[in-house]
Amino acid sequence: MQVRYGAERGQTKLSWLQSYHSFSFGDYYDPEHMHFRSLRVLNDDIITAGSGFPTHPHRDAEILTYVLKGALEHKDSMGNGTVIHEGELQRMSAGAGVTHSEFNHYQDQETHFLQIWFLPAEQGGEPSYDQTMVLDEEVANTFGVVLKPNPQGAQIAVAQDVVMAIAKLDAGKEASYAVAEGRGVYLHVAVGRVTVNGTELTAGDALQLESVGELAVTAVEKAEVILFDMA
What we know:
This protein is mainly beta. The protein has one helix spanning about 135-140; strands spanning about 1-5, 10-15, 15-20, 40-45, 50-60, 60-70, 70-75, 80-85, 90-95, 100-105, 110-120, 130-135, 145-150, 155, 160-170, 175-180, 185-190, 195, 200, 205-210, 215-220, 225-230. It has a single domain (about 1-230), classed as Jelly Rolls. Helices cover about 0% and strands about 55% of the residues. The chain has a seven-stranded mixed beta sheet with strand order 1-20-17-22-15-13-14. Strands 2-3-4-11-6-9-12 form a seven-stranded antiparallel beta sheet, with no helix packed on it. Strands 5-10-7-8 form a four-stranded antiparallel beta sheet, with no helix packed on it. The two termini are about 15 Å apart.
């Protein structure tokens, strides 16, 4: 089990953006942290009121946006124009190429979100889009699956062998997750403070595990953790 403390991440600080990079991104380059399996980017972003990312291109990436606080306005070359609210998860498969923009929906408050990229199982193809609300009852004090290759119900599909699960934990509550043979798990603490198999982690910290076993996550205080289970 390898711990990646939030204070060790790369940073981008602009007048309108504060971003922490778990893996090499933009001007931040760390050969020890290029990716974990197919997980290529995990950026922890806060953008100021009325600001955002102007239209820019992507290709050959499974791009996830999960809003922790506030809301984002999204527009893309596929014709989508949506608002991603707090607690919603967006997936955009860039495929052979797509352009999009993301701006803070609000003029009077910050928006805090995670942007996550996975390398796709196959390159090219038609870009596509999906969005869903993460229901509190599905993730309360347990790991609820919100994204996987073959989704069910409100789950979102992803073009890679990845399962994404979220747990929102009340103080003192525990959620466990079994890591199967041949799989790797990356767990990111989005909110609050937890212990994972006895190791204390706080918001921004993460760990990765590449051996069979069980992760026992206990909330020291109210917390939210994001888990990626990958081939």
